[in-house]
Predict the 3D structure of the following.
Amino acid sequence: MMSRVRELREAKGWSQGQLAEQLEVSRQTINAIETGKYDPSLPLAFRIARLFHKSIETIFDPGE
Amino acid sequence: MRAEQRPLLKNCFFSSLAYLATTWICVWLLRHGLADAPIVVRALVGMLPTVPIVFAIRAVVKLVLAGDELQRRIDLEAFAIASVALGLGCLTASLLIVADVIVISGRQALLWVFPIQWIAYGFAKIWATNRYQ
């Protein structure tokens, strides 16, 4: 699944570690989400959306 | 790995080390010093390695529960792969024993089941972790 997490994180000037700390997950998880290798659970997707003040659909694109 | 998981990982390592040391000491004692001891004493000494291994299992469970969702998934995949690999390894070995190709004593085989599962888990975890990097 494609996501805009990296773009939004960089716009805020946060490192992967800083974002991971705010979401209470590991840096590895943030990296896997940004590279599209891991699809977050619904609760984590909601936490990400709330943190960036966006809707889930504007951050994550399931593609075809 | 998150900061709160590091002490738990250290616990896992030292518990596993204690298991290996206790096993070695118990086997040595049972073969040399306690060969003629009463069965109750031999049973108690023989079962001593289960104490550190219970601590190791407790430490691993705490480590897995302290992980986030991706880390738990990686651990689940690693445990599943390690279990299947161990089962397949045991089946292969038993078939080779039946075919009189190899000879493994039952006591040696049983003693190695748990360490082999740990080792398989370690390799499987490296593989599973790399999948998400």
